[in-house]
Write a structure and sequence with these properties.
With 211 residues, the protein is α+β, with helices and mostly antiparallel strands. The chain has helices spanning 7-16, 40-51, 101-110, 175-178, 195-206, and strands at 30-32, 35-37, 57-58, 63-65, 68-70, 74-76, 81-86, 124-135, 141-149, 152-159, 166-170. The protein binds zinc ion (ZN).
Amino acid sequence: MRTFPSKAVQQWLAGGVSDTLTHTIPAIPTIYQGIRFRSRLEARWAVFLNALNLTYLYEAEGWDLDGEWYLPDFYIPNLNLWLEIKPQTGADLDSIWPDNPYWNWVQKVSDYPAGDAPLDYKNLVVLVGQPIILKDEGWLLQVGYCGYVIGDLSYRWCECRVCGRLGIQFEGRAERICGHRHPNFNDSEIGDHSARLLTAYEQARRWQPER
Ligand SMILES: [Zn+2]
């Protein structure tokens, strides 16, 4: 069973990317491509999306959800996908309700009637942590984030091996994006480390905000 991330990756993250890893470090407003992001972590995810040529809208639309204002971080029109970016708290990313605060959060959003807001469990993903994936411990690829959807976790970016469509699926199982079956890959063949995705992760990792 994988953990997200492993001890080795945690150490690597601590040394390589120091911002917004924990709540103890305040979010630093960061400008990237003319947009003022609330945190460096959000800006780094914007770099990742940009590297994938995915057009995104930042804080495009918010809703009053039963008295609580909710403003998702990103909307990706081409994928009809809303993304919420959260810093890693230092808690085990692989833990689930009731230990993991993000589990409750996704549950809360999904509790609202779908008609009141154009988002629900089908197209809202909470990404917790840095946009990082790297080879670690031999062949195993470790990710530095965990994607949460309602009722589940361990979702991550992947790319269809047939048509190249991007999506976020459980364990990065690319076949689930559009149902395309590749003769050389089955469902258990993780599609989270295509060349295109690895390039995007690398660009996000190397990106440095302007001082
Ligand atoms: Zn496809």
